[in-house]
Amino acid sequence: MQDRATADTRADGANGAAEARALTLGPGEGDAIWFLTNRITIKAAAGATGGAYGLFEAELPAGFSPPLHVHHREDESFWILEGEFTVRCGERTFRASPGSFVFAPRGIPHTFVVDGSAPGRLLTLLTPGGSEAFFAGVGRPAERDGLPPPAPFDIPRLKEVGARFGIDIVGPPMMPTQDAKSLQDAKKETR
Questions:
Q1: Which strand ranges, in their side-by-side order, compose the sheet holding 31-35?
Q2: Radius of gyration of the chain from its Cα atoms, rounded to whole angstroms
Q3: Domain at 36-144+157-186: CATH code
């Protein structure tokens, strides 16, 4: 999909840098990328935000989990829109459902898994921006609506492109867990 974002910019006379003033994208607009088994739509790239942040929406199949990884240059935050997730950040593992916000600070290994049989959808905020280009570098333009065909992860490629963006792959993806209610019931029974 062609990015149909509009942005007003002005030249800053002091340093010649362009300053972002406005960015407008409608539903479904943005650069759509097939990344691993996901569809990512870039809503705001660093170039449009003066480097402040990158923002994308991700559609994820049930059972999806990225490899455990570390961002060294930016913090990564998630706003869960649909689906049930188990998130690992450092030594903590916790549940996240629609409406949940997750902050994964730079330098801390993290991953997540989309639990259950339903897909997930989330917004990802990268601060500062720039590493949204990592996803484009590993992925490819979406060829149609929906998710890409299932395929194994190309870990050497993730590591190669990640190194250019200060992202290290440090472990495997998470395995899907039981549904949230079963996990909560099991915890109550062991007390």
A1: 101-104, 75-82, 120-127, 54-60, 38-44, 31-35, 140-141
A2: 18
A3: 2.60.120.10
> Do you find a cis peptide bond into 128, omega within 30 degrees of 0?
yes
What's the chain's average pLDDT?
87
CB 45 within 8 A of CB 129: yes
Q: Is pLDDT of 13 > 90?
A: no
Name which of 171, 161, 174, 164 is nearest 69 in CA terms.
Answer: 171
Pairing assessment for the beta strands 38-44 and 75-82 based on DSSP bridges: unpaired
Tell me what pLDDT residue 178 has.
62
Q: What is the tens place of the pLDDT at every residue in 35-63?
A: 999 999 999 999 999 999 999 999 999 99
Measured CA distances, 172 to 31, 65, 89, 148, 175 (Å):
28, 9, 14, 21, 9
Copy the structure tokens of residue 122.
């989330």
Tell which residue, 104, 42, 43, has the closest CA to residue 72.
104
**What phi, psi does 122 have (nearest 5°)?**
-150, 160
6-10, 36-40, 50-54, 151-155: the lowest-pLDDT one? 6-10
C-alpha 153 chain-centroid distance: 16
pLDDT(136) > 50: yes
> How many other β-carbons are positioned within 10 Å of the β-carbon of residue 109?
17
